[in-house]
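Re: the 590-residue chain
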Amino acid sequence: MSRRIPRLLRAFAILLAVAGAVDPAITSERQSRPVVSVVAADSDAAPLAGAVARQLAAGFTVIPAPFAGGAAATVLVGDRLPASTAELAAPAFAVVPAPSGAAVAVERVEAPASAPYQARTAILASARATGAAGRTLEVALHLGGVVIDRVRRRVATNDEVDRVALTFVPMATGAVPLRVTAAIDSLPPTAAADVLVSVSETRRAVLFYDPRPSWMSTFVRRAIEGDPRFAITSRVVTSRNASTDAGQPPASLDDLATLDLYDVIVVGAPESLSARDVAGLDAFMRRHGGGVVLLLDEKASGPYETLAAVRDWAGTTSGIPIPVDPVVPDGRLRSDEITWPDRLPAGAEAVARSVPRSGDTLKSRPVIWRSAVGAGRLVVSGALDAWRTRDSTASAFDEFWRSTIAATADAAAPAVGIHLSQSVMRPGASVDLTVTLRGPALAALASGQAVSASVSAALESPGGSAAVRLWPAGPIGRFRGSFRAPSAAGTYRVGVLGDGARAEAPIVVSADAAPASEGEGDLIRAFVLSRGGSAITASRLATLPAALERAVRPATRREEWHPMRSAWWIIPFALALCAEWWWRRRRGLA
């Protein structure tokens, strides 16, 4: 025993020396802290991004930038999406600022690019009110600093978007800048957005074509004849070789070159149309992008059914006029006899529906509906005798058809379409321009073959013009470009020449221009939901680490450990040798 202990100590020391020379490696798997990328939407979100990073520091490795290749998750901070989402790793979470008190923003303003002189023009504004439940939202339309329309609504929730309809009647031609403001409880406006409407005396060309006399078509025509927005041409076929004309209408509807003169074609008694007429209307919508309104006054079959894409019809007759309410409120119609498709065509939407009376078994039916036909729009009315009850005290017959035909005309594609990312801007602002040439675009769509198209654009001012370069973008006939707004305030025009036609769009440069502050809260929530995450407010920031832990699996990595590369192995080596020497010395062993 006295000799075994020193041998063991010596063997241990030799083993350590051999291990030091061989340098063995030990492989092990370890869990690493997940890497989380924290991305601030803009500089205003930087303080909140710092708070998020501190909250996650205990359990995660935080990188304050997009890191698609190595991050286990992404946390977006702010109320907007970053410019590029391709670099964001999934799953993605969002931390949005918590509303502090009542706030309001004008997120979107929808206005026609052009409007007729002295005709009522609708402006639709979307205002988001946060933290204002139970309070009053006031949205106003200003022209030259004067309020010309105002709408007040009660806010029901603490995050609510209200779509408000405002109107104005332009009393002068030219570029008319308008401002929409929003406020809570009639306090000074806290949000504003500018929009520009080009007012002209140009009128929409509408053709009324009746293959036989129709009372419905007659009274719809009378309803819009006094509206300055429309220039009316009509043809009523009274017998085989006779007709009553106003203006110079086409003899039939199969001549596309003649139909190109019109924006909307209203057809009375469509069941009397020939197959060639129906083919002409179809080509008018698909190749011209125009609108067609079919006014049924009896339930009968005919070639028009292929245009309406309806095979089976249903209907009812009542001794008491049946109320027919527009989906977008603009006055109620009444009709003793109505018809509707057994099934709405694919993609169609109701314009007006029947209103069941108390104790009536009749359900709400799409009596008037619209659908897209190529680039055009088709409206079909099944209120067969609504003209009988058009008295203004019981029906809004005139107002309904004026607004319906105006909307159909506005949807018609112009020969040269101009879309600007903003029409009222600050000096030096960047503006995106999109140009669509109707002819080449629709010809390529109809034939399926490439069609040549040339286009040029320029920013025009009293001092001259500057060319705007355009590049093909997307479908044939569509071009895009960009330019900088002039440094001097004033009114300018963007002129576009293409496919033998010219179009202009005005812009206004102003130092106090206010763009719509379109929020992206709903878009952020949809984005993170699609990436397997969720959105939380800053007030619930403490719940973010737990949510990340549930969504992110801890990463494991294989590591090689070389124990003999540490100097600490010298200590047990020296102790073993010293202990062996001391043991032998004490026992008097050689």
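The first strand starts at residue 26 and ends at 32.
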